[in-house]
Specification:
The chain is of the alpha+beta class and about 180 residues long. It contains four helices and eight strands; from the N terminus they run ααβαβββββββα. It is globular, with a radius of gyration of 18 Å.
């Protein structure tokens, strides 16, 4: 109400991907119709460790799953709507526990399957226990092409019959500048 009365924005939720150069480049490609009508959205979101490692007394594994969705997957859901300019019509979420130390049903790996308003499908993977590092990426399949973010920034080393590229340690390494 204060924003409406002042006729200017005062609050912004931390959806920083709208300002990330890689995400903006994908958005620009979609706006310029470079891949045709989007038909499939794929998002990947991997954190090095769960943001919630212990539960308070009385909390449940369901609380952990909600935290994974609210702290991590929410960014991918926002990105999907922002990129495609479509509304989500149906959602199916499935999860597994990859680390029994988190609790029996503390799903640290979830997949989210979406149906969107313009006949597009979506699939989001959120894994909050990827010990190797932090990664976020998106790929959008259109009727005439595909556009995606780069998996990581930085060097790519090819040596000894392998390809190696550094992976960010945490989310601030990847998105610290765009929060500013």
């Amino acid at each position: 109400e204060a924003e409406v009365n002042l006729k200017r924005r005062m609050v912004q939720v931390g959806f920083m991907r709208h300002y990330d150069p890689q995400h903006v480049a994908v958005k620009n490609a979609l706006t310029a119709d470079e891949v045709g009508r989007p038909i499939l959205y794929k998002g990947v979101h991997r954190n090095r460790e769960p943001q919630v490692t212990a539960r308070s007394p009385g909390s449940s594994e369901d609380d952990f799953a909600r935290t994974v969705i609210v702290n991590s997957a929410i960014h991918d859901l926002d990105s999907c709507r922002w990129f495609l300019e479509q509304e989500i019509e149906s959602v199916f979420v499935q999860g597994v526990n990859t680390d029994p130390a988190l609790g029996h049903d503390a799903f640290d790996l979830i997949t989210i399957h979406l149906s969107l308003s313009n006949g597009c499908l979506g699939m989001i993977e959120v894994y909050v226990n990827a010990e190797y590092g932090y990664e976020v990426g998106v790929e959008i399949v259109g009727e005439t092409g595909v556009v995606q973010t780069n998996p990581n920034e930085g060097r790519v080393l090819r040596s000894h019959r392998s390809v190696m590229q550094p992976v960010h340690q945490e989310w601030l390494d990847r998105f610290g500048d765009v929060y500013l």
